[in-house]
Design brief:
disordered N terminus; eight-stranded mixed sheet; about 230 residues; alpha/beta; Rossmann fold
Length: about 230
Amino acid sequence: MVAEIVDGGIGQLGERIGVFGGTFDPVHSGHCALAEQFKQQCALDSLVVIPAATPPHKLSLPLSAFEHRFVMLTLAFAEVQNIFISRLEQFREGPSFTIDTLRHLKKIIGDKRKLFLAIGEDALAEIHTWKQYRSIPDLACLVVFNRPFGVLSETEENVRKAFPDYYSLNNNRRYFENNIEKITLLNMPAVDISSTRIKQAIGENEQWQAMVPEAVSRYIVEHHLYK
């Protein structure tokens, strides 16, 4: 069913579809900036934001209820065109593996549309620990965005380690296999904001409101989150 995949309908997604996953606990202004740059620099027709239900790399960490995180995402992107918040992982049993999510999404939207998956350069450094990671770029082109204090040369080295068969043309930060683009390194200013930092600030009664969209700030206060 369409409603189970993307609120708003599959037909509105277009041909070039971005996928942006994470815990979003909470979503913050850095996420919003990344989403906008992701759309612009990859010429996306739409962006599907997928909050993880059970992130495999954070199984031991406390996580806010899925519904809280979902609602905060809808508030954060309410005024942005062509961004859809998905419940794709909400009812899946077991950990929310990226490869499973992409296969499910690909099955629904078909093979003719092109997927782009946003990941951080810190995630790229650990991608060799992900389930069936070598198959991920076959389903979606990896779009790697920089983290604060990241080093480009280290990111390029991580690409070569994880995907030794990929090659770049004229060192233009795009990597290919059999003339098919598999990885591109996104060029955007790093935003020094994290969900962890926001939760720490809330818990310590420090200023945090400027790090999240105003509607999200009101929701956090109203529901007494992260206290």
